[in-house]
């Protein structure tokens, strides 16, 4: 089930129509999808700019395998990662959503997945591998549906526009009437780590403006910490502004998915996030940089949600 903004009366009616099932609201934070680049593919709609070709998961995995075994192909074919949007992430994870609803229905849990879009729109020139048109004129009519939760400054490594991304997340939580968990992919997985840490009631927040985004998240969720967090191909943010999110370790239950063929986010970066969580669960799937949606890989997620969504919610400040 996917949530949309509704009035209080509509929400009450929705709860009634759920047949007595308990809603488990999960914030879904998009990240990267796979792009395939080769000579001739990086061309814009009118012969210049940039065209992005999205591969199916199976083809992307096959290409990753080829690149690992035939190094000479790396000069003409490569897997890249890039950001997307809430609707695109929803489209890619519909099978996961349906399986969760079906699996959790017998225990009267109804997962409600909420898909916001990051506020930072990226232009074609921001995309790795972009080649400007030969005539020096950008194609202003082409605006790819590519968004980010924050931007990394290549010169300093700092995260820019991070507060803006968190403001959108806080607004989404508020509009949903609060959430129970958060799930993110790639950059969304990194953002998930910061969100779940910031919402832990007993974690000290930075004073002043540095902690305002975290206070906004807590207020939006009624000062309630999250029950669980899930990261797909996520990573920890090695920036000074987020050090307090990982020290002490994140104590909220976390589940981490890692693709054994992921060539976008190195396993050591994902392990960095895992190492900063207390008693984390980790699942390694035989794929690349994507969210696995087959039953085999959704079942651990369903079991994880079942375990933690039904646990008593700790009181704020305890």
UniProtKB/TrEMBL annotation:
<protein>
    <submittedName>
        <fullName>Dihydrofolate reductase</fullName>
    </submittedName>
</protein>
<dbReference type="GO" id="GO:0005634">
    <property type="term" value="C:nucleus"/>
</dbReference>
<feature type="domain" description="Serine hydrolase">
    <location>
        <begin position="79"/>
        <end position="299"/>
    </location>
</feature>
<dbReference type="GO" id="GO:0005737">
    <property type="term" value="C:cytoplasm"/>
</dbReference>
<dbReference type="InterPro" id="IPR005645">
    <property type="entry name" value="FSH-like_dom"/>
</dbReference>
<dbReference type="Pfam" id="PF03959">
    <property type="entry name" value="FSH1"/>
</dbReference>
<dbReference type="InterPro" id="IPR050593">
    <property type="entry name" value="LovG"/>
</dbReference>
<dbReference type="GO" id="GO:0016787">
    <property type="term" value="F:hydrolase activity"/>
</dbReference>
<dbReference type="InterPro" id="IPR029058">
    <property type="entry name" value="AB_hydrolase_fold"/>
</dbReference>
<dbReference type="GO" id="GO:0019748">
    <property type="term" value="P:secondary metabolic process"/>
</dbReference>
<keyword id="KW-0378">Hydrolase</keyword>
């Amino acid at each position: 089930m996917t949530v949309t903004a509704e009035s209080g009366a509509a929400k009450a009616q929705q709860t009634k129509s759920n047949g007595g099932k308990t809603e488990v609201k999960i914030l879904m934070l998009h990240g990267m999808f796979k792009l395939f680049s080769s000579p001739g593919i990086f061309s814009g709609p009118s012969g210049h700019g940039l065209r992005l070709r999205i591969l199916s998961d199976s083809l992307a995995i096959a290409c990753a395998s080829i690149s690992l075994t035939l190094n000479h192909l790396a000069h003409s074919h490569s897997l890249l990662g890039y950001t997307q949007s809430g609707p695109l992430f929803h489209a890619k994870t519909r099978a996961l959503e349906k399986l969760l609803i079906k699996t959790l229905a017998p225990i009267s849990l109804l997962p409600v997945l909420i898909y916001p879009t990051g506020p930072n729109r990226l232009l074609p020139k921001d995309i790795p591998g972009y080649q400007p048109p030969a005539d020096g004129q950008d194609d202003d009519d082409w605006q790819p549906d590519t968004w980010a939760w924050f931007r990394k400054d290549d010169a300093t490594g700092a995260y820019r526009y991070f507060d803006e991304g968190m403001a959108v997340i806080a607004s989404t939580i508020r509009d949903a009437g609060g959430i129970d968990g958060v799930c993110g992919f790639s950059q969304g997985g990194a953002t998930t780590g910061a969100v779940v840490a910031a919402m832990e009631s007993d974690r000290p927040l930075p004073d002043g403006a540095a902690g305002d985004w975290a206070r906004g998240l807590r207020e939006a969720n009624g000062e309630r910490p999250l029950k669980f967090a899930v990261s797909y191909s996520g990573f920890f943010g090695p920036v000074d502004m987020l050090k307090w999110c990982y020290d002490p370790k994140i104590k909220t239950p976390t589940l981490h998915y890692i693709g054994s063929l992921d060539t976008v986010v190195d396993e050591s970066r994902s392990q960095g996030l895992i190492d900063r969580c207390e008693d984390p669960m980790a699942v390694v799937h035989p794929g690349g940089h994507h969210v696995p949606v087959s039953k085999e890989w959704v079942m651990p997620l369903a079991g994880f949600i079942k375990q933690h969504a039904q646990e008593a919610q700790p009181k704020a400040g305890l």
